[in-house]
């Protein structure tokens, strides 16, 4: 079982109550309650006839008779007026769904709502209990779009419809829904803005409904305005940050044809720097005298310093605590320094190769590290990252103590593609198994040159609902640079996310991962650099690093290759609660490529998600499907963010 509690920075301000946020409801403000004079309670039932699109529930949500049934109206006349108003509201909703010949019959106390006798009938019935109200809706035929046209309002010249109409279902033969008309209008404006018409608008539209043919003709009258070019850019809101940091990242030049896409790219790129708490880009209300469009970039800087801490407990790794301190915008160029400290224990209960149990002092692990990031080291697309750490690590597979260092140059080639190259240095000593007497440890040195390429077109970092992520890393370690072993590490991963429904409340997610160590025998590779499977980030339901080759004592020793896969169905029950059934598979192998001498291990489980503003809080419980002796009965995991 793994339990993690993390506390970090929090924004000051009011927050709704816990249970209101948990279940996606709003708290009602306390206030004086004014009793309704002569209240009339009623029961409402609905009868939907000819509903082929399952619109009944949506109509109920729009009905005041349904929404306000716990707030009784005053007297028989009050109930009659509520029912009559509901009829008009439902007629408007049906036309929005494409039904222009519906019939709505509402009866109160058994008589038509429009009858003059309705109030008296209500008063006669109410003495015996709640007044029955019945709403009968006959949908009738659904109208479809016929002729669709775009016209220049000033000249009357017909314009080409945008490609976005198809996605909005604004095409002949599709249901004549008002939502499609509004989406089609937005598509017109978006298409014209992409062509440089910054002030494009649709001042009016005409819709003609033909009851004989049951069709609707729609004409959009468009005012494109003048084509615009990007003009002067101003940066507002910077305090310690040099405004040139923002200016250097503007992806367009003065005089370039206007397009909203580079503005969206700029907003997204600036938002990825944690030096900003908010980024807003405003287009000018009018063109400047030279015919260019001024752009104002408004930013707000976050607090320069931050601090946080966390705690965790694992039945296989023991307790642990961590704390960190950081400084943003160290020198005025969005530089970031973060210092981390972590102390952890390990629950090693099995006798090791020495035949002795380690004392609690020998089970203690720690890590002290620092990370420095310098954005724009060469160009605005290049970032420098320097890391250093001193650690003592104790696991069931190995123990390690020493220094780790890395320096990397990262570059963003496009919105989706990025890459990095760097230098890794590791000088440490290790022990196999559970003996943690580091005085007898074996020293090793690894100096590698990692090259990594990443592709990411997902829509969200912590909770992706569509898109693909892929990463390939190749890192050679050579004695020429000082390594005690010559080898090459290759790691690849691929994950994909496919929404099943239009609202993206049901998302199918999948992941595969592969790793290989080439050029060295297993015994020559330091155990900390071998591949291991099992645990919360691998095959859930099994112990951490427990899947793979083992020695004669049954201890995991790691392998030269790794193969993993996972699949999840992420289902949102409410806006804040989700259920996720999942399956995992994986194994580490002695050879440099999976030879399947050891069978793959599988697990299945179910997870709970609580969606917060910073990402989903994840709780997963899993059980191995082909467990062996010594495997745990289940695994429990809590963390922030999706599993992958």
TrEMBL record:
Subcellular location: Membrane
Positions of the POTRA domain: 228-302
Gene3D superfamilies, per the entry: membrane protein fhac (3.10.20.310), membrane protein fhac: a member of the omp85/tpsb transporter family (2.40.160.50)
Species name: Chelatococcus daeguensis
Any Pfam family matching the protein: Omp85
Designated name of the protein: POTRA domain-containing protein
Gene Ontology cellular component annotations, sorted alphabetically: outer membrane
Chief localization: membrane
Record-linked PANTHER family: BACTERIAL SURFACE ANTIGEN (D15) DOMAIN-CONTAINING PROTEIN, SORTING AND ASSEMBLY MACHINERY SAMM50 PROTEIN FAMILY MEMBER
Keywords: Membrane, Transmembrane, Transmembrane beta strand
Superkingdom of source: Bacteria
